[in-house]
Amino acid sequence: MSLPLAETLKIILASPRRPPPRGTAPGGRGRLGELFRNLQADPPGPAAHAIEDDIWAIWIAHDDPHLENRMQQAIGAIAQRRFSDAETQLNDLVAAAPDWAEAWNKRATLYYLTHRDAESVADIRHTLELEPRHFGAICGFGQICLRHGEMAAAAEAFAAALAINPHLDSVRAVLAQLAPGRPRRLN
Known about the structure:
Layout: H1 3-14, H2 29-41, H3 46-60, H4 65-79, H5 83-96, H6 101-113, H7 117-130, H8 135-147, H9 151-164, H10 169-178
Protein name: Tetratricopeptide repeat protein
InterPro entries: TPR-like_helical_dom_sf, TPR_rpt
Pfam families: TPR_16 (PF13432)
């Protein structure tokens, strides 16, 4: 495994032992802990998906409406494959709000989509330093590992994501193919 992947995997595997973040998701700091606890307790189905949607909404939200609007513009640019516009927006967001984990995560996603994996891994690491429970960033790291043939690292990442959000059925299916001997339920 290359050094950047190994270092990021160490951060991912240490995530459960890290305290909850203090400076992330300004509008929902207190609510995130409750949502993550509920995500672990609720059975699969609509309730779990609603909780996951609420977590994503908090991650994407920002107290500054201008920055939140810029995030929506960046998300739209990515969806329309206007990657240069998205990168400009996300670079500005990371500079303006360096403690906003989702700005780093969205830029990591952009880098992944444009096959700039080293930059994506760096932004995933930064995302996880700010929000160690970011199952989306962890899954993104797993995808990069798959692209580089690092199947064991991908399996570890996907297992870590499932430990945080046990309702990621597509991730569970990939993990079952990568590591058939792993338990189906990880929490």
